[in-house]
């Protein structure tokens, strides 16, 4: 009876504290913190008058209620979005593994953990979403979908011929498929396997069905992408860029019930758009394509890295990938410019405006594959054309204007270059981009990206570039900002939600994403999907066809210049995205590898460098998911 009474009083006190301080929240990274990494929670005060007389210190208490760190001073950092004031609670010096809660300003945070294995299983969780997005054979239903793809069309939309291009991944919660995003997703998963092989398990076979096949799951998923890309680029004079268009938005169907009629019958063939280098669009809107290089470069880099990784595993595939990579690269050099995706009845398309980054990456990976130093020279030349990804430092950009968001070409050139001068040049380019973002990050959350559509892509890109720069140089100057971007994605944001559906398992994450699959079959089907992320209020208010379906549970946190809604009606902030998920696979696998390595070595995390290690270790089993918590904002 005594223990029950104590428990009741504790719960009552906690409820009273929440009610009394509902305008003050403490946001933490819900996955956890690596022991040697920066550790900063953020206090968000919606009403600054409520904290004028509160002691501005904080402590951490362990799972037995004992104070283990502090008191320490909370550092005020000004306003941000709905937060009239923010404070940063820095507990970086606490390195002891364990579970803790932060007490500050009269409120207590959710439980956080410090653990070298905090990120274990994260990257593999993201692959669950990639498998769900598969076209062709789909393991979720155990059957094939979009089997009639597709019919190549000309500029007027007339059928030219049938081309067998079933496969790949659907782009988001619609069912369009783009080489632009799919080639980059394929490359990022191949890169994750090359640089962080220890982070991946083997629980699924090549078709995505449960069952080991002796191949890491990330490589199985990348192979699914490579197979589709090979179909979309069957030869030198035949390069395709897109499958389907936004006519599929007319129905909110499950992907295997897609009843869109493109003129050949409901659920039948979909149009395949060729790369022409000319503006495309069959209805009232057209893109602004000027060449082939942006798409050709993406093909070439994915094929070249694939060829390197499959040389031993599958020499026939590796040879095919090498030949196709060289063909794509030649096409890109002869047709400079961008090959944008094609709009349909709506004005939205991927307005990619840069291509030199794609060609730089292609040249660097082909140099790594062939050893032809002319290719390294071409990579450096392309790098000099665009040393800094243009969105970095800007406050806005068009939709996917500077995709893939950060330039992997600089890292690829750095990695393969023997001369220190090239390495120094690439390091400088990364540093300039990071400096530009950091200059805008003078807020409590230490984030400096523009909150355009798919802002989580940019957050992931900044963190990845910072991580690569740190490994390339050993320079830790951006480590705080790198961690802040990762923390933002995993709960240290005004809404206190992870931007990854279903991860961490016991975290707060979206339960009503913009998805027919989630709506009809349950959100668990989308486990691992990275959401679009918050956008400027002005963007949300001006997009066509957006309307919230339910009362906004995050209304108190949507009063500032950026908004996020866990609502099926908001496709601008709450729709999972395939390309962003694949990019996050690289980042989280890197953190898992760093965490385990730091736990095994006395030198700490800072000593890790960019070259992949050849060490092997016993793998920590991937955690299985359990039901997540919607929680209270």
Please give a structural write-up:
Strands 3, 4, 7, 8 and 9 form a five-stranded antiparallel beta sheet that branches. The chain has a five-stranded mixed beta sheet with strand order 13-12-16-15-14. A four-stranded antiparallel beta sheet has the order 1-2-6-5, with no helix packed on it. A hairpin with a 5-residue loop joins β12 and β13. With 633 residues, it is α+β, with helices and mostly antiparallel strands.
Which stretches are low in confidence, meaning pLDDT under 50 for 5 or more residues running? 1-20, 606-633
| Rg over C-alpha atoms, rounded to the nearest angstrom | 24 Å
Q: Give the CA-based shape.
A: globular
Task: Please state the structural category.
Answer: alpha+beta
Mean pLDDT: 91
Structure keywords:
single chain; 633 residues; alpha+beta; 5-stranded antiparallel sheet; 35% helix; 13% strand; disordered N terminus
């Amino acid at each position: 009876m005594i223990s029950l009474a104590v428990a009741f009083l504790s719960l009552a006190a906690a409820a009273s504290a929440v009610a009394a301080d509902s305008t003050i929240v403490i946001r933490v990274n819900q996955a956890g913190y690596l022991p040697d990494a920066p550790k900063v929670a953020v206090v968000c005060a919606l009403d600054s008058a409520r904290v004028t007389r509160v002691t501005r210190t904080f402590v951490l208490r362990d799972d037995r209620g004992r104070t283990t760190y502090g008191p320490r001073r909370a550092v005020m950092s000004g306003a941000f979005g709905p937060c009239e004031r923010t404070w940063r609670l820095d507990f970086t010096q606490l390195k002891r593994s364990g579970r803790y809660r932060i007490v500050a300003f009269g409120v207590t945070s959710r439980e956080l953990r410090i653990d070298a294995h905090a990120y274990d299983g994260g990257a593999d969780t993201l692959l669950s979403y990639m498998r769900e997005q598969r076209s062709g054979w789909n393991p979720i239903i155990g059957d094939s979908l979009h089997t009639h793809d597709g019919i190549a069309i000309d500029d007027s939309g007339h059928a030219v011929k049938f081309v067998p291009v079933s496969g790949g991944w659907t782009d988001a919660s619609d069912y369009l498929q783009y080489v632009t995003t799919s080639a980059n997703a394929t490359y990022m998963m191949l890169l994750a396997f090359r640089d962080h092989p220890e982070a991946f398990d083997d629980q699924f076979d090549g078709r995505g069905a449960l069952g080991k096949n002796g191949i890491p799951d990330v490589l199985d998923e990348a192979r699914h992408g490579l197979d589709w890309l090979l179909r979309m680029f069957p030869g030198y004079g035949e390069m395709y860029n897109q499958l389907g268009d936004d006519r599929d938005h007319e129905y909110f169907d499950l992907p295997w019930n897609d009843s869109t009629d493109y003129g050949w019958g409901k659920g039948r063939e979909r149009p395949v758009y060729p790369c022409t280098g000319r503006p495309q669009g069959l209805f009232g809107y057209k893109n602004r394509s000027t060449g082939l290089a942006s798409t050709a470069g993406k093909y070439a880099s994915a094929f070249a890295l694939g060829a390197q990784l499959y040389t031993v595993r599958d020499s026939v595939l590796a040879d095919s990938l090498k030949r196709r990579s060289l063909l794509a690269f030649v096409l890109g050099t002869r047709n400079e410019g961008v090959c944008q995706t094609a709009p349909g009845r709506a004005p939205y398309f991927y307005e990619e405006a840069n291509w030199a980054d794609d060609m730089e990456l292609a040249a660097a990976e082909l140099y790594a594959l062939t050893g032809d130093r002319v290719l390294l020279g071409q990579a450096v030349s392309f790098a000099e054309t665009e040393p800094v990804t243009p969105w970095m430092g800007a406050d806005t950009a068009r939709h996917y204007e500077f995709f893939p968001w950060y330039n992997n070409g600089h890292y690829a050139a750095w990695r393969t270059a023997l001369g220190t001068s090239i390495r120094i040049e690439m390091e400088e380019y990364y540093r300039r981009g990071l400096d530009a973002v950091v200059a805008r990050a003078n807020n409590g959350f230490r984030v400096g990206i523009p909150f355009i559509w798919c802002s989580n892509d940019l957050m992931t890109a900044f963190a990845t570039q910072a991580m690569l720069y740190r490994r390339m140089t050993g320079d830790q100057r951006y480590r705080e900002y790198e961690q802040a971007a990762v923390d933002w994605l995993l709960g240290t944001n005004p809404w206190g939600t992870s931007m990854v559906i279903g991860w961490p398992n016991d975290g707060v994450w979206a339960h009503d994403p913009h998805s027919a699959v989630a709506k009809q079959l349950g959100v668990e089907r989308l486990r691992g999907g990275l959401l679009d992320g918050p956008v400027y209020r002005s963007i949300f208010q001006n997009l066509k066809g957006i309307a919230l379906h339910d009362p906004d549970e995050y209304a108190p946190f949507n009063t500032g210049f950026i908004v996020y809604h866990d609502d099926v009606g908001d496709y601008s902030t709450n729709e999972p995205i395939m390309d962003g998920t694949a990019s996050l696979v690289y980042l989280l696998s890197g953190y898992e590898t760093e965490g385990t390595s730091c736990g095994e070595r006395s030198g700490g995390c800072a000593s890790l460098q960019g070259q992949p290690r050849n060490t092997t270790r016993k793998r920590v089993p991937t955690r299985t998911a359990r039901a997540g918590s919607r929680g209270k904002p």
